[in-house]
């Protein structure tokens, strides 16, 4: 029995099916002929020449990330520990870019090693020019410095740095403790200053309130004294007016004016008795004393009339 046709048919089917290539989405296949770059295959179903064209590598054009952990030394000899996340991707889909990605490095591990060491070296070089106190506040500056330094290098490899995030920046334990003490002392200082300002405001407002109260009390006392003076003046004017009218009526009635003085004398003694509130007042209640007082009052009235 002749098996040669079946063998040829089998090899023909193998060759036919091996000419079909499926490339996954987000991936580009690099085709070589006898070890030399020939072309690239886009995602989907493609054909290649069996036994001649070979798939050298499949390059992912999706974003890739890697975590970094390394140490740097500042200008004042402080150890700084970084934890970072690196996001990178193929620069574009151009043929030259794909060739650089496929042939610049032996494999992906060598690429990753070169990429990590390049970024670490760039960060270390920047941190070495800074002091420990400035590193924490310069997170963004460090990222911008790294991007500026390695963009051209990565482009020559066919890659682009999408993002670099410094997730954690720490120092030696002793430095961290001293920094905590500095922060605590600054907080205590700020609290003391705030309390002092609050106390000053309270004292100032209290003094202003006391001053305003004194001003109001003084103004009220001044107004009360003015009203008392006006009342006394009105009282005296009314007394004088009443005495004048009473004297005129006494003269019209052909009566002695001394009766008015006698009445005022008795009214005064009555007022003293009613409002003395237990105090002792000594008065000469004899007839001689009354005559003496009446004569003095009459003499004062006569002198006033002469004037």
From TrEMBL:
The chain crosses the membrane at residues 6-34. Pfam families: Band_7. It is a single-pass membrane protein. Gene3D superfamilies: Band 7 domain (3.30.479.30). InterPro entries: Band7/mec-2_domain, Band_7, Band_7/SPFH_dom_sf. Keywords: Membrane, Transmembrane, Transmembrane helix. Residues 18-183 form the Band domain. PANTHER family: STOMATIN-LIKE PROTEIN 2, MITOCHONDRIAL. This is SPFH domain-containing protein. It comes from Pedobacter boryungensis.
């Amino acid at each position: 029995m002749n098996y040669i046709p079946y063998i040829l048919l089998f090899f023909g089917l193998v060759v036919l099916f091996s000419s079909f290539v499926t490339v996954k989405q987000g991936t580009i296949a690099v085709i070589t002929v006898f070890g030399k770059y020939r072309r690239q295959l886009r995602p989907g179903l493609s054909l290649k020449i069996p036994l001649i064209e070979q798939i050298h590598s499949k390059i992912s054009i999706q974003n890739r990330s890697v975590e970094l952990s390394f140490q740097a030394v500042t200008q004042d000899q402080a150890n700084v520990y970084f934890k970072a996340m690196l996001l990178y991707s193929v620069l574009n889909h151009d043929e030259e870019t794909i060739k650089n990605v496929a042939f610049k490095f032996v494999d992906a591990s060598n690429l990753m090693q070169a990429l990590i060491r390049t970024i670490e070296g760039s960060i270390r070089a920047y941190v070495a020019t800074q002091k420990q106190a400035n590193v924490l506040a310069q997170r963004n500056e460090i990222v911008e410095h790294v991007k500026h330094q390695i963009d051209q290098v990565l482009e020559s490899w066919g890659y682009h740095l999408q993002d670099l995030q410094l997730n954690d920046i720490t120092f030696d334990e002793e430095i961290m403790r001293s920094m905590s003490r500095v922060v605590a002392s600054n907080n205590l200082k700020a609290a003391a200053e705030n309390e002092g300002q609050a106390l000053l405001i309270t004292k100032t407002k209290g003094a202003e309130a006391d001053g305003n109260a004194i001003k109001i009390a003084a103004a009220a006392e001044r107004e009360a004294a003015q009203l008392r003076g006006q009342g006394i003046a009105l009282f005296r004017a009314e007394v004088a007016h009443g005495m004048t009218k009473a004297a005129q009526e006494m003269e019209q009635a052909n009566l002695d004016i001394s009766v008015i003085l006698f009445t005022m004398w008795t009214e005064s003694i009555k007022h003293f008795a009613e409002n003395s509130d237990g105090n002792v007042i000594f008065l000469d209640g004899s007839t001689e004393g009354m005559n003496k007082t009446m004569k003095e009052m009459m003499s004062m009235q006569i002198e006033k009339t002469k004037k």
